[in-house]
């Protein structure tokens, strides 16, 4: 076959580094060109970064074409979104959470070194932090009920009695301000705590009071020592709950706020 005739199959030389391309004939398709790059772990990063760069170029050229010379165009939302996407795609795969699959969106803040770009584009977690609830606490280390709320000896017993030895620590059931700390006829040594919202608790018949009026106490903080003072027939802790100045059944009230002592 002559040199001037049609090029024969033996005259086609393949590119050494890219055997799918031919010299002197035609350019291989882009699909064949990109297939090595899209293989394995490079697929996700190449596709996203490539799209981001191409999109950013198109947006930039369109914006520049419509602007008078000498003015710097302000970055559009599209450019910001593309930049955030490119930054997200540039994170190494080994930095992703262990349970994240390929192509899955990664929540903002879950990747070390992540910038605020994700948050600025609205891709943030809907979960918000909440303050921990303050809980009601038992007024004694060991709870044994010896007398209930209701009629007793021809009059209403406005609280509930808990068995306690003289000197046992008595604790505030809930945070509040000490409204009364001293002697009260019938109650003996009495501590009254104002918890706000019209709620008060009473701790009576104490042998000793360890707080003073106007003092703030936390739930579970010791306020007194159990005893047998006032109108009492044995060492115990008499406990009352008042709502807007009226005594209510203490065990039911405590149960309604999450503390069941029955």
Question: Features of this protein?
Answer:
single chain, 262 residues, alpha+beta, Glucose Permease (Domain IIA), 2 domains, eight-stranded antiparallel β-sheet, three-stranded antiparallel β-sheet, 13 strands, Cell_wall_metabolism_enzyme, Peptidase M23-like protein, metalloendopeptidase activity
What does this structure look like?
The protein is α+β, with helices and mostly antiparallel strands. It folds into two domains: 84 residues, no CATH class; 112 residues, Glucose Permease (Domain IIA). Helices cover 20% and strands 23% of the residues. It has five helices and 13 strands. Strands 1, 4, 6, 7, 8, 10, 12 and 13 form an eight-stranded antiparallel β-sheet that branches. A three-stranded antiparallel β-sheet has the order 5-11-9, with no helix packed on it. Strand 2 and strand 3 form a beta hairpin. Helix 2 packs antiparallel against helix 3. The longest helix has 24 residues. The radius of gyration is 39 Å and the shape is elongated. About 11% of the residues have low confidence. It holds the Pfam family Peptidase_M23. This is Peptidase M23-like protein. GO terms for molecular function: metalloendopeptidase activity. It comes from Glycomyces artemisiae.
């Amino acid at each position: 076959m002559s040199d001037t005739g049609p090029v024969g199959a033996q005259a086609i030389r393949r590119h050494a580094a890219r055997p799918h391309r031919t010299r002197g004939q035609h350019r291989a398709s882009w699909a064949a060109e990109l297939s090595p790059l899209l293989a394995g772990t490079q697929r996700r990063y190449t596709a996203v970064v490539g799209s981001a760069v191409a999109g950013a170029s198109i947006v930039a050229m369109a914006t520049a074409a419509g602007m008078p010379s000498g003015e710097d165009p302000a970055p559009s939302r599209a450019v910001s979104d593309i930049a955030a996407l490119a930054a997200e795609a540039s994170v190494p795969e080994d930095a992703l959470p262990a349970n994240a699959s390929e192509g899955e969106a990664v929540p903002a803040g879950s990747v070390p070194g992540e910038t605020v770009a994700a948050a600025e584009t609205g891709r943030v977690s809907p979960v918000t932090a909440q303050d921990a609830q303050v809980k009601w606490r038992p007024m004694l280390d060991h709870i044994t009920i010896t007398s209930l709320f209701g009629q007793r000896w021809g009059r209403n017993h406005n609280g509930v009695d808990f068995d306690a030895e003289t000197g046992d620590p008595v604790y505030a059931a809930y945070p509040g301000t000490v409204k009364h700390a001293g002697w009260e006829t019938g109650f003996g040594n009495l501590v009254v705590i104002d918890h706000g919202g019209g709620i008060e608790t009473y701790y009576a018949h104490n042998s000793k009071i360890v707080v003073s009026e106007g003092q703030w106490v936390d739930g579970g903080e010791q306020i007194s020592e159990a005893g047998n003072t006032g109108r009492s027939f044995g060492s115990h802790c008499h406990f009352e709950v008042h709502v807007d100045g009226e005594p209510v059944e203490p065990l039911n009230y405590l149960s309604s706020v999450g503390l069941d002592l029955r």
